[in-house]
Amino acid sequence: MLPWQLPGEAAEELDRAVTELGLRGVLLAGRPGDTFLDDPAYRPVLEKITELDVPLYLHPFHPLPQVQQAYYAGLPEEVSTQFSLGGWGWHHEAGIHLLRLILSGVFERLPGLQVISGHWGELVPFYLHRLDHVIPTSISGLEKTVSEIYRSNVWITPSGMFHRAHFEFLRETIGLDRLIWSVDYPYLTLDGTRSFLDGLSLDSAEKHKITHGNAEKLFQL
Amino acid sequence: MLPWQLPGEAAEELDRAVTELGLRGVLLAGRPGDTFLDDPAYRPVLEKITELDVPLYLHPFHPLPQVQQAYYAGLPEEVSTQFSLGGWGWHHEAGIHLLRLILSGVFERLPGLQVISGHWGELVPFYLHRLDHVIPTSISGLEKTVSEIYRSNVWITPSGMFHRAHFEFLRETIGLDRLIWSVDYPYLTLDGTRSFLDGLSLDSAEKHKITHGNAEKLFQL
Questions:
Q1: What is the CATH number for A112?
Q2: Predicted ipTM?
Q3: Among candidate residues B108, B99, B100, the one with its CA nearest the CA of residue B142
Q4: pLDDT digits (tens, 9 = 90+) for A10-19
Q5: Does the residue B27 lie in any domain?
Q6: pLDDT tens-digit map of A71-82
Q7: Structurally, how many domains does chain B consist of?
Q8: Per the domain annotation, does A11 fall within a domain?
Q9: Residue B79: which domain range?
Q10: How buried is A91 (Cβ within 10 angstroms: 0-12 exposed, 13-18 middle, 19+ buried)?
Q11: Is A185 within the bounds of a domain?
Q12: Which of A99, A129, A134 sits opposite B86 (nearest CB)?
């Protein structure tokens, strides 16, 4: 966790955390403020993350209040709350966050920046095909398509959502080189992991990749 | 199209359109106002749609301005525009619209109400598993789970998005009884339909369903 509100100090603290303490990555829960990390204010931190070659995990958090009000309010209180959080809203906002990084060209300026996206990619993988169609490079002004950037700079974890259809969609569209098995302890635990994985018809090289090989590579373990 | 802003008149006009003119369904582009159709103001129209046994197509449209500003603004102008429309934003808002109908209990009050959701379901099918987990009936207060309501009251069309991974996900999670082939003329046409369908390994009964049988049933053609 970094003091993102002070980007210069955040970059310094990251340097200390990685080079002195040996930490292997950065986690951001939601936004540091009203804007997302495509805001040029955060450029020094993203540059430092890239320079140190540690991944950035975009963890979901409470959506912006104006979105909460517009999309999730007005239902029974607990329904509104869960709909805006783990049911939908915070996943969606984490997906928006990642898409803004892609569309603003952050990964073309910092091609080494690697981002982790949980919960099978926070909805994004399921519309990459659409994004490529509606926002081609002729509109985005980027050298690569949205899905090409995604496959170069994003790693996906299931966050304990054991659902075979998600896995199969990701295997088909992204492949297994960027999939890192994870649960969501203590909410979702390792219970059921073995039987889930055993049901996926993975060969041993594939199982090696998603259960530890990809993580070892990304975190340089 | 109905004058939704005047729900009483909208219900009357729908009656005339169906019983006198023989029309077979209702299309709504976006929201009639600042709220979605779970707003009790629209109850008379939804009741009339159900009574007349015609489906309601929730077509995407421009997202609410506060969401547009919070999530899609600040990128190059044409990128912001497409991101907020056909690239993501309007699909997402159409998905939110449907989820609000489900979570507010509209389909438990009106179990006969049938809704059509385009573009492979506007993101919703890809998180039904999550919604069931995070908003179970003990929280929603509904008799059926979100995905059970979805499979009883929603019909899905691809809207010309020819992508095998989407089709396979839907076949696996929803089945083929509520899938209606569609393009998005004049933007996406029938070009490529035959080769796409031929590549899906459908038997003739399945092909019959999605290319015309399901539509004939839903629209009583």
A1: 3.20.20.140
A2: 0.96
A3: B108
A4: 999 999 999 9
A5: yes
A6: 999 999 999 999
A7: 1
A8: yes
A9: 7-156
A10: buried
A11: no
A12: A134
